[in-house]
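Reviewers of the previous submission asked for a worked example of the structure-prediction workflow described in the proposal, so we include one complete record here. The input consisted solely of the amino acid sequence. No template or homolog information was supplied to the procedure at any stage.
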Amino acid sequence: MILSELIPFLKKIDARPKKSLSQNFLIDPNIVRKIVHTAEISPGDTVLEIGPGPGALTSLLLDAGAQVFAIEKDTLFAKELSRFQTPDRRLKVFEADVLDFDLKTLPLPLKVVANLPYHITTPILEKIFSHPFISLTLMVQKEVAVRMAAKEGSKDYGCLSLFVQFYTTPNGLFKVPPSCFYPQPKVDSSVIRLDSRTLPPISPDLFFPLVRKAFQQRRKMISSSLQPLYSADQIREGLLSSGISKTARPEELSFSQWVELSKTMSTNYSKQAT
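From that input alone, the workflow returned the following structure tokens.
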């Protein structure tokens, strides 16, 4: 929907953008088309759309031939999405909070397309990452997208980067300015595609505590920041065994080096009492 279509639609259903739900609606058709193109939607794909709102993306996903399962928390918009249902377009709408929704009820394989509420991006990702998927094409705050795709050596590289890259390979990042939304947000947005990847050979329960501990003090050397999780001797030996400099800082290690270090530490050493 362009703005001249959206405003009458909102008035017709007596709806207003809700700040509590981070509702900023896309009004640029070119961006909508670019999102669907980035997601590489093909006829027969099964798509989970999170937060469709007035349905600008929903319509194009259906036009591309996808079967769409739309989860919308707002009662008014969930009801109105049924207008896109026709005999040759497969759409099922759930009025629900995605954080409470049982994703196991959806068929596989699954592509996810979502305009994520900025304040709950990470909890939603945690939920989706625990469920099989092909790809996620997400609209998020620009700074968040940059952090998701960041590599070692960057100031944006950190826990979120390693969390996302543990489960996915980031691709297709592009910026979306505030003028593409109604109402206009105070921040720039970006669309990023995250493709499912083979999981690293380490349990997330062993990988993420190590990463979080190190990045709590990202300016310190790892030999210091991992204490008291491990003893100084254990850390020094673990870094040596993993081929990592004893003076290395958290943001200097690549994803594969973090995997290797977490494997080494969890296999060879017991954690200290904290």
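The first strand starts at residue 25 and ends at 26. We consider this example representative of the routine output the project will generate in years two and three.
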